[in-house]
Amino acid sequence: MSPTPPPSGPPSGAPSDTLKAVAAGRGKLVGTAVQAGFLSDPPYNAVAGREFNYLTAEYQMKWNVIEPSRGVRDFGPGDAIAGFAASQGMRVKGHTFLWHGATPSWVNALPADELRVAVEQHIRAVADHYRGRIHAWDVVNEAIADGGGSALRDTVFRQKLGDRYIADAFRAARAADPSALLFYNDYGGEGSGVKADRIYALLQELLANGVPIDGVGLQMHIAAGSRPSDGAIAANMRRLAALGLIVHISEMDVRINDTAGSEQMRLEAQRTTYQDVVRVCMLEPRCEAVTFWGFTDAHTWLSGDRPLLFDARYQPKPAYDGVLEALRGR
Q: What is the pTM of this model?
């Protein structure tokens, strides 16, 4: 599938200098991960609605949240995110059908034949519930191993279903929702290196076997003082695009606690990192979206660091200005 272009500009009367307005003018999506419980907080709600045109459910569309007990599904928190997005004219990325880190405990105890059925039922039920409201799904998340040995992580899915579980998940997702884009999502393979090569090889093989994959998410959890070079990120995006894939920067944040220098120097290093990486996406035609893994330091999975665009009081940091400049092509 080809990416569907976002709106060409902000609605009449909307601010023209927000992240989403500038991104839309350049044909890109700019997104954030959100949590349903925070949407009732007025400043959180206001900033999310003002600045972004693409939302990812940080937790509330994962299997262990939707179906903690077998056969009993709760879509309420995910529905709150989808409803907020609809009210703001945003697109939604569903995250994620299969991830070893969000598997209900009852799943781990299933024998192989029951696990296969449970996976298919889960994908079908969730995709059917959100059909027509999801721009893209992260179908399989973080299936590539980090170290030596096997290329694939030794998850419960691989142990009981074999390597084919990835292809089967994508085929089930396409059957369940033919209109949504289907993504593989992972970390640590944004530039060059063993893991980037493993991700590329996996996707190349799956596509060669006719598996319906539309895109790849490069998470981009990085530190200001240690990250892939712009050239390496661009080269990786281009080889993935050459496979016919859409590319997303899917979970970006930039840590600064270990960056040398004064606080102002750290914040400027963070700004530069954000600006440089987002600029790479802006220059690559098949890079459709940049999503940040949250937007305020008040709510981040990196407790104790300050990795996001807004501080804990919802004030924009230098990083925000860096992203805005990158979206403008600077």
A: 0.93
* Dihedral over alpha carbons 249, 254, 259, 265 (to 10 degrees): 100
Report the pLDDT value the prediction gives residue 3, as an integer from 0 to 100.
54
Q: Where are the domains of the chain?
A: 19-327
pLDDT score for 330: 83
- Catalytic: 67? no
Question: Counting Cβ atoms within 10 Å, is residue 111 exposed (0-12), middle (13-18) or buried (19+)?
Answer: exposed
What does the alpha-carbon distance between residue 141 and residue 330 come to, in Å, rounded to a whole number?
32
CATH class of 19-327: alpha beta
284 a catalytic residue: no
- Alpha-carbon separation of residue 220 from 3, 119, 300, 323 (angstroms): 21, 28, 15, 14
Q: Which of 51, 67, 190, 251 is catalytic?
A: 251
Question: pLDDT value at position 150?
Answer: 73
Structure token digits, residue 95:
């995250």
Residue 198, token pair as written in the block: 């493993």
Predicted confidence at residue 2, as pLDDT, reads 53
pLDDT over threshold 90, residue 4 = no
Pick the catalytic residue: 142, 190, 268, 288? 142
The arithmetic mean of pLDDT across residues 158-179, rounded, is 97
Per the DSSP assignment, residues forming a β-bridge with 29 are 289
**Alpha carbons 326 and 34: distance in angstroms, whole number:** 23
Amino acid, single-letter form, for residue 100: H
